Amino acid sequence: MKFFITGATGFIGSHLCHQLINEGHEIVALIRSPEKAKKLPERNVELIQGDLLSFKNDDYNIPECDVVIHLAGVTTSINEADYFKYNFDAVMDLVECLNRQSWKPKRFVFASSLAAGGPSEPNKPLTEKDVPKPIELYGQAKLKAEEFLKTVPFPVTSFRPAIVLGTGDEYSLTLFKMAKKGLGIKVAGINQQISYIDVDDLNDAIIKMCMEESAESKCYFVSYKEHTDLQTLWYTLGKAVNRKMLMIHIPKFMLFQLTLFSSLLSKVSPALGKLDRKQYEQMIQPSFLCSSEKLQKELSWQPKYDVYEMTRRAAIGYKKLGML
After folding, report:
1. How far apart are CA 301 and CA 193, in angstroms?
2. Residue 190 neighbours by CB under 8 Å, 6+ apart
3. Which residue blocks in 133-169 are alpha helix, DSSP H?
4. Domain spans of the chain?
5. What is the bridge-based pairing of β-strands 193-194 and 228-229?
6. Among 84, 121, 234, 284, which residue carries the largest CB count within 10 Å?
């Protein structure tokens, strides 16, 4: 099969491209940076220049493909308008662009987020039957895109991944670098319960969604069968890099002040403003849990890697790259 993939050079996308090529498929990859494209497989990959704004152009052409996998988007931004611009408006533009092509995809697979479902109650993972209650703009934009995609004239499958870890992710690397120093952080009084998924397990699920007719018009949470909590995750990261962990407990009011300060710094330089309101809202929740039972049953998918194996594999990958 032939796949058109946005976000192909990103963390999830680059892993997915290698997996698809290894399984004998072809890829058309949307790329902004030729330099980043070097991480993609050399064979059976066609590169087309563009970004999420390119789909607005009436004359923008996408080579004919069987499946469209839309991974690209904005997860954090100093400009709150960007959350809807790149996570909702861009989805509409992509659909309009596809409608202008002489061909139509057999399946459109959309990367939403656990944030679209919102936080859960402690020890009570969200299921697809729960009413979504996103608490910040990123999750709201993703949910709005999900709703819009229910109206398009071709088959759509959406998925909401839990926290994704693996080699090649900026967020994962930041956690590992902190663990390498023996430091972990959490909000004082909150040991947040979290669902997670290894990047390779996630991509196994994505490929299943592309291939199985029963996935049409469905939305799936994607997570490992069990959940963990933030403190356990930090200790597991420490074990993966052979460090004993010291936990730093940040009071909620101090975290809020840091968020405001980060917003001010971002006006000087975006690189300085890493903590935004979205991250603050997510960090103070007691629980972000979801269940992938529906996905496991309907598509016969089984995740392989628990939190210990997931972090061990990622640490090995980063060490091979000389990053840890």
Report:
1. 23
2. 252, 284, 285, 286
3. 137-149
4. 2-166+197-224+290-307
5. antiparallel
6. 234
Backbone angles phi, psi at 246, to 5 degrees: -110, 120
Percent of the chain residues topping a pLDDT of 70: 96
Task: Evaluate whether 310 touches 166 at the Cβ level (below 8 Å).
Answer: yes
Query: Which residues, at least 6 apart from 321, have a Cβ–Cβ distance to it below 8 Å?
Result: 167
Tell me how crowded residue 112 is: count the other CB atoms within 10 A of its CB.
27
- DSSP line for 33-87: -TTGGGGS-SSSEEEEE--TTGGGSTT------SEEEE----S--SSTHHHHIII
Whole-angstrom distance, CA of residue 257 vs CA of residue 41: 44
Q: What is the mean pLDDT of the chain?
A: 94
Distance CA 143, CA 134 (A): 8
Query: pLDDT at position 216, please?
Result: 95
Other C-beta atoms within 10 Å of 101: how many?
14
Residue 274 confidence (pLDDT): 61
State the residue for tokens 């408006």.
89
Record the tokens describing residue 98, joined without a space: 């596809």
- Contact of 152 with 104, CB cutoff 8 Å: no
Q: What top-level class would CATH report for the domain 2-166+197-224+290-307?
A: alpha beta
Crossing angle of the two packed helices 307-320 and 230-240, in degrees rounded to 10: 40
